[in-house]
Amino acid sequence: MRTHRTIATAxxxxxxxxxxxxxxxxxxxxxxMILNASFKRPQDLLTTDAWAPARHxxxxxxxxxxxxxxxxSFLLHTLLVSVAVTLGQVVFSAMGAYxxxxxxxxxxxxxxxxxxATMMVPQMITLVPLFLMMRELGxxxxxxxxxxxxxxxxxxGIFLVRxxxxxxxxxxxxxxxxxxxxxWTILVRIMLPLSKPIxxxxxxxxxxxxxxxxxxxxxxxxxDRTKVITVGIAALQGQHVSDLPHIVLAGAALALLPLIAVFxxxxxxxxxxxxxxxxx
Amino acid sequence: xxANISGRRVADIERAPDSSVTTAPVRTASPVVGPPPRRRLRxxxxxxxxLTPSLLGFVLFLVAPIIGVVVISFFDWNLMGSPRxxxxxxxxxxxxxxxxxxxxxxxxxxxxxxxxxxxxxALLLALAMNRGLRGGKVLRVLFVLxxxxxxxxxxxxxxxxxxxxxxAVNQFLSxxxxxxxxWLSSTTWAMPVLASINVWQYTGxxxxxxxxxxxxxxxxxxxxxxxxxxxxxxxxxxxxxPLLRPSMLFVLVTNVIGSFQMFDTVxxxxxxxxxxxxxxxxxxxxxxxxxxxxxGYASALAMLLFALILLVTAVQFLYFRKRTVYDFS
Lengths: 280, 329
Hints:
- The complex is a heterodimer of chains A (280) and B (329).
- Chain A has 280 residues and is mostly helical.
- Chain A is built from 14 helices and no strands.
- Chain A folds into 2 domains: 44 residues; 218 residues, MetI-like fold, CATH 1.10.3720.10.
- Chain B has a single domain, classed as MetI-like fold, CATH 1.10.3720.
- Chain B is 70% helix and 1% strand.
- Chain B contains 15 helices and 2 strands.
- The two termini of chain B are 35 Å apart.
């Protein structure tokens, strides 16, 4: 009886692993296919199966998309915008989150619920007025126009960091206050060092969201001077998906690689912290 | 040293997520109870100084545009000339616009295809991962990887995979003796393809939240159930599912809001076609606002989208409020 049960469990466990590994392959399959295909020679691309490894691997697709199709400048623009927005969000969210988590001031609860309420507002709602505002300020097709709407932090960022700040015991601060430390000192010397994982998470999520954002750059930019990678690839795909698929593939691979790198670097924090925000 | 401390703290929270730290009401945060007036003034000034940048962004780029879109929805405006007040004309036009209602139907259809599949798959995945398998951490990372995919960059792979002749999907189906449809150029199949791409992207991400919820259920409940002779399926429906409701609510509310705003895949893969079958609300609003320059009308449509999202969210909250047990102890 007991051995029967053990065998059944062993079978169940193996079956589970098979399903889970198949699922994991499905999860990363599209990435692997893009990477693999972007190394294939154009003439091999349509004649070999999508999952067949690139036998005559070549860097030509990458050099072509980098030099002839403006990918180097699109990547540079995207990097500039993403880094600026990420830095701003981390710094300003931490400042705001500290006020909400630890200071008492009139209007705090009302303001905080105002922030939370706007998390439900669809982004599309704000885009038309935002565009008009940027046009009045003469910021259409500028980096400032790309960066400004999100650089000051989002309600989500503030919420995420505030939730974490509230888990830090307040006796640490009380002790520092008795020693005469200012609020700013407490924030920078005590709170921030204790919050590295959550700040890394916010930075990664912001970086990824900004890097991937299509709709706002589509609306606010209209020339190669400010074009970011999402818009560049969408245009490339619209024009050349049938005649130059290897170029489009190499462009897609170049756009994805930095994301994968950033994600893998911080995945430990992210996997933990994402789940943390869901528990209320 | 500090990194060590913070690492340990997060681990502690992960293990005990139902402790007061995440559920405490807003009031308890102050280090000092009832500060004297001078201190109070200083705290207020400091708080607003710290909040200045984020408040600036909040008011200028979130609150002002929300008010703006309401105002613009009462005007007729093509972005160039001067706006003309037309009262409710945009809203009246909307009620008779069959394309608008098609986009509403398309959006609801997309949500209906996408959310149940994604949630059930994520739940099954979370249950499997909660068994503490060897290699679970690596699997978890692999499952979450699609979450950060740039839809634009992956569009080419999806177009390729669903190509009727050379695509991987139809090649696989032909092995089973089935001849697959022309996925993206079929009015029947284009939307299910877009929905399944979203399922691919967000199932692992959703699983993370549900897994955290599962781990928060006290082991003692299952032990008690064991003593009472409660079997596997009953355990799931009587203990696991009811106690997972807070996580479920969070996941459903945020994913539904996200699905209502689907844009990137439509933009890069179908442009709303074939024959308007994937013209979702967000894409329709985008076209009206930034391709046809009907700013006022697009703003009215945005209000419709917002109203729909509010309605669906409220329904979910009401449904869960009646049935949710918040107290774990």
